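Before a colleague's protein record goes any further, I have to sign it off. Alongside the sequence sits a line of tokens, each denoting a local backbone shape. I want your independent view on whether this chain really folds as the tokens say. Where you disagree with what is written, explain briefly why. This is what I was given:
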Amino acid sequence: MVFYIPETLMAIIRRRAKKTAHPENLDPIVHLWILRILFPLGCVRDFISLHGFSNDTIAALLGLGDWIDPPLDDFKPKSARLELRRLHQAVELEFANAAPPRCLEKNVAQLANLVGLSAEDCRILEFTILLQSERLLNDVSDWLGCLSSARLFYVLAKLLDLPEQAIRQSLHPQGILSRSGLIAIDRGSSANLASKLSLISDSFADDITSTESDPMLLLRDMVVIANEAELDMSDYGHVSTSLNILRPYLQQALSTGRKGVNIFLYGAPGTGKSQLAKVIAEDMHCQLFEVTSEDSEGDPVSGERRLQAFRAAQSFFGQRRALILFDEVEDVFANGNQIFGQKSTAQTHKAWLNRTLEENPIPALWLSNSISELDPAFIRRFDMVIELPVPPKAQRQRILEQACGDLMAPQDIERLSHSEVLA
């Protein structure tokens, strides 16, 4: 953003800028963005009315404290706008190259090295994080009203002083920000700025601005390292034929870095799908990262957010020898409502999901209780589809002996092992 100002006026503005007290509790770059929303983007009309300010707190922080609460007839909106414009020009001169808070800047730089963010990607990510974490910036952005995607690109270009084409490239569905899951854009409808740009989780903004940490820890609310397995391969003898094919296939994929490897495991609850995933990871000598279905407060995570977390995990852990576990895939593949014509998350994001099943760098294990509700077009894209049936009687008896041998008589274990519904 460039202001063409005569040199004499420029000198006056510089002198006045030195007298413009910057609010201590408002970060310089946030201060600058708020003023850009008010002036270049025209929201000053919502801020200054005929009889005063729509938000006195913001007015005071911007340096207009003397204009608050004058006698009703003494408030002069035109003069207030001129004073605010002067303050805007001064802040542009002083903070045009302002950086985000040091902690945020350093964490974003680490993310950039990890997933390959460009300089423009970093600026957009920093802005989105501060938009979600700085209440005043969030409040002021509401005056921009509902934004279409085209309007969003224009607004960000003005706010961040970047070419609009660069903004479009960074936020393209094939851009790193989208493919990594760090930022998701609501492209289907008009919404306010904070709703159009969403981060991977509700805690992400707080975590990345509060402390300098390993980027891996920024996903802890959405992706966790799976616990150690409680079973071993000998507990899955009833599916040994499938595993004898799967194990060398995964070993080869991990050794060669093959992309687009996805395995679908399904079976009734209690048949040991999650344990099998952990057993496979230990057999492959690699880490297993699990996309959670609940956040840190125990609330369910939407299918769309889980897909976003899956994207991020693929980007964050792409250089590791790892597997990713996506349990309860019904949240994504079967959460629509055919009666009311509502598409599932997978159907809504069909093109992206198809690309993911072809290009994900880390092999993924997708777990479900049933396969019947999945679109056959998705099923065909999995490398292997394995049904995990209820273990046979001998296996059920062995599990009961391991779990309850000291608590139950042998005849009770024998009797219970006949029941398939106790899987």
